[in-house]
Amino acid sequence: MPPDVGFPAVLKPRRSNGSRHTYAIDGPQDLADALAAVAGLHEHYGGFTLEERIIGDPAIAGPGWGDYVSVESLVLNGAVHHLGAIGRMPITPPFRETGIFLPSTLPPQRLAPVEAEATAAVRALGITVGLCHTEIKLTRNGPVVIEVNGRLGGETAKIIHASTGADLVRTAPAAALGDTATALAEADRMRNGPDNVSYQISAFAAGSGTLDGLDGLDQVRAVEGVWRVVPCKARGELVDVDMGTFSELASVYGVTTDHTRLRHAIRIVERVVAPRWRG
C-alpha cells in the first residue's frame, strides 16, 4: 500500500462508471479480499486505484438521507450560476446509489458553504461555459469535493424537469452556442422552483443471482405521484452486486409534496420490490 493512503480507503477501477467493482476498505483483510475479487479484471478496467475514503456526516442532511449532494451549475463567460442542490438517498453496499431528489434537505446555512466549494472547484478547473455537476461530501469538517463533471448528472434532467419545468438538456447547447438569454431563462426556472419534491429511486437486491421475475412493480406504480417505473433487468439476466449501479432492479420516478412523503415512497419501494431468483 502506498504510504500516503491509509484506512479507510476505496478500491476502484481506473476506467469505469456506476461504481462497478468498487469496494470499501477498512483494513488489510478487506484489501486482500477486494484484490482477490478483482483478480483477472485489471486489463479490462486499466488497473485499480486505492484512494482515501471521505467519511461523511449523515446528520448534516438529516437522518435517513445520504451524506452527500450534487450542485448543478451553469457557467457563462466564466461566471458560475448555481441552479440548486440535489439531495441523495443513502448508499447501499458496496457503493450503489439508491436515488436522488430535488430540492435537497440542506438549510440555507448548510447550502452556502457547499455552493462555495462547488464554485471553487469549477474555477480551479478553468471551466468557462457549460453545465457542471459537482458531487460534494458533507463532512464534520465542512464540504469536500468528490468529483466534478462537465455535464448534467445522471437522471438529474428528468427530476429537474418534473419538478420545475426547466429543460437543462436545452440549456447546455444554448450555453455552448452563446445563447445566454435562453440558458439563463431555463436556469431561472430551476432556481425559482421547486414547490414540490421530485425524485428517482433505485431498487436493488441484497444479493446476486439469476433473475426469474420481479415482484412489486404494480404496487409502486399505484403510489400517488409516481409517474414512471422502469424495470432494469429482464428475466434470466444476471444480477451482480459487484456491478454497482448496473445491478439496479428498477428505477422509480415521482413527484410529491414534501420530504416526509418522499420517505413514504422510499419505504414502499424498499418493502415491495423484490427479485425472484432462479434455483
Describe this structure in words.
With 279 residues, this protein is an alpha+beta fold. It folds into 3 domains: 9-52, no CATH class; 58-192, ATP-grasp fold, B domain (D-amino Acid Aminotransferase, Chain A, domain 1); 198-277, Aldehyde Oxidoreductase, domain 3 (Alpha-Beta Complex), CATH 3.90.1170. It is built from 9 helices and 14 strands. It has helices spanning 28-37, 42-45, 58-61, 108-124, 156-164, 168-176, 180-191, 217-221, 259-272; strands spanning 9-13, 23-25, 48-52, 68-76, 79-88, 99-102, 130-139, 142-149, 197-203, 209-215, 226-231, 238-239, 250-256, 274-277. The strands form 3 sheets. It has an 8-stranded antiparallel β-sheet, sandwiched between helices. It has a 3-stranded antiparallel β-sheet with strand order 2-1-3, covered by helices on one side. Helix 6 (168-176) packs antiparallel against helix 7 (180-191). The longest helix is centred in the middle third of the chain and has 17 residues, at 108-124. It is globular, with a radius of gyration of 19 Å. The mean pLDDT is 94.
Short structural summary:
With about 280 residues, the protein is an alpha+beta fold. The protein is about 30% helix and about 30% strand.
Number of beta-strand segments? 14
Quaternary state reads single chain
* Uncertain segments: none
CATH class of the largest domain: Alpha Beta
Placed side by side, the strands forming the largest sheet appear as 8-7-4-5-6-9-13-11
Please identify the structural class as seen in this structure: alpha+beta
**CATH architecture heading of the largest domain:** 2-Layer Sandwich
Distance between the termini: 40 Å
Give the proportion of residues in helices: 25-40%
Helix/strand order: EEHHEHEEEHEEHHHEEHEEEHE
CATH homologous superfamily designation of the largest domain: ATP-grasp fold, B domain
Return Rg in Å. 19 Å
Largest sheet: 8 strands, antiparallel
Query: How would the global form be characterised?
Result: globular
CATH topology-level fold name of the largest domain: D-amino Acid Aminotransferase, Chain A, domain 1
Count of separate structural domains: 3
Mean pLDDT: 94
SS element count, helices: 9
How much strand? 25-35%
